[in-house]
Amino acid sequence: MQLEQVLKQLKEKGHKLTPQRQSILKILMMSKVPMTALEVRQKVQKSHPRVSLNTVYLNLLMLTQMGLVIQTHLQNRTASRFEYQAEGSHHHHAICLSCGKSICLDHVPEPKAGKPEEDPGFQILGHTLEFYGYCSSCKKAS
Amino acid sequence: MQLEQVLKQLKEKGHKLTPQRQSILKILMMSKVPMTALEVRQKVQKSHPRVSLNTVYLNLLMLTQMGLVIQTHLQNRTASRFEYQAEGSHHHHAICLSCGKSICLDHVPEPKAGKPEEDPGFQILGHTLEFYGYCSSCKKAS
DNA sequence: CCTATAATTAGTAAAATTATCATTTGAACT
DNA sequence: AGTTCAAATGATAATTTTACTAATTATAGG
User: Fold this and answer.
1) In angstroms, how far is C22 C1' from A47 CA?
2) Contact A112, A125 (CB under 8 A)
3) Which residues of chain B make contact with A131, given a CB cutoff of 8 A?
4) pLDDT grade for A99, boundaries at 50, 70 and 90
5) What is the distance between the alpha carbons of residues B59 and B38, in angstroms, rounded to a whole number?
6) Inter-chain touch B131–A129, beta carbons under 8 Å
């Protein structure tokens, strides 16, 4: 999806197109690797030196809730990473419990048996599958 | 799996069976709902008043890496929760982006279309699937 | 039973993430 | 252009999680 379309989509949902927000979005859309909140902030600071980390987190949350960004948790290791999710580019992750490395998977391997092609030696121990959205009571409220 | 068997399994992997660790494990195995680290600590403190939160986190991490515990992240909301994963009881979660409620799923719904039976009104917006284990280089090192 | 060793613990500090709130600002409407 | 209002920002504090280290302890072996 192009930037213009995404901005339009945000506006339709009642979100304001602040300069900081647009900068964050552009940075995520252009990055080829998932980024931490701190990395995003450092890039944003080039054009908006006073941007707060809080603003970055709030925008990452909003974009996640819009389904435009995916957050990957590194299974109890350091900072989580955020990644723009272009339409049709949905994919999953294999995360090393030892070094925290996150490997993008184009295909879903057989749980507990598969070997991701990106790292054929990867030993899968388990997996988590989390769906997110809105429960019935929250949907009513909004 | 029974407590005794789990303890045996830990021992085989070279882990020591400290009283704190056994307490944490028992609490997780008996709990019917996923617990936060703080909640676990509060229960442990009844028998070990001086237990540190750090110890709780370290044990939760170790148990996660053993595949005995599942950590659910509440998509950017407050504390994550930990749940003992009995053999054959593997299941997934639906998490509300608004209130953070976590619903356990016995079956995997159709992504972006399904309605979990536990909350037929739940609106699924997206999902994350993360495999964890050990990458080839870390496997060699150990 | 005693010793040696590595794992674990508790304490502390640091880092990551979320909450709160006063102020600012984009957007819609005059 | 001016006004209004809700959303967003930045500052700060609080909470959650991780990192580091010295002291303790479970366990294996003598």
Assistant:
1) 25
2) yes
3) 92-95, 105, 109, 111, 116, 124, 126-127
4) low
5) 13
6) no
Angle of helix B53-65 relative to helix B19-30, nearest 10 degrees, comes to: 70
pLDDT given at position B98:
62
Query: Rounded CA gap, B98 and B113, in Å?
Result: 19
Among candidate residues A25, A20, A50, A54, the one with its CA nearest the CA of residue A37: A54
Chain position carrying tokens 């280089």: B137
Average pLDDT (A37-46) is 97
Residue range B25-43, pLDDT digits in tens: 999 999 988 899 999 999 9
Q: CA neighbours within 13 Å on the CB side: how many for A103? A: 26
Q: Is residue B92 classed as helix, strand or coil in its secondary structure?
A: strand
Residues 94-123 of chain B whose Cβ lies under 8 A from any Cβ of chain A: 94-99, 101, 103, 105, 108-109, 111, 116, 119-123
Q: Is the C-beta of residue A8 closer than 7 Å to nucleic acid chain C? A: no
**Two structure tokens written together for A13:** 């949902």
Rounded to 5 degrees, φ, ψ at B84 are -70, 135
pLDDT (tens digit per residue) in B110-122: 544 445 666 777 7
| Through-space separation of residue B116 CA and nucleotide C29 C1' in angstroms | 43
Q: Which tokens belong to B31?
A: 């709990």
Q: Which residues of A touch B129 (CB under 8 A)?
A: 92-93, 108, 127-129
Cα–Cα distance for residue pair A54/A1, rounded to 1 Å? 26
Q: Is A4 exposed, middle or buried (0-12, 13-18, 19+ CB in 10 A)?
A: exposed
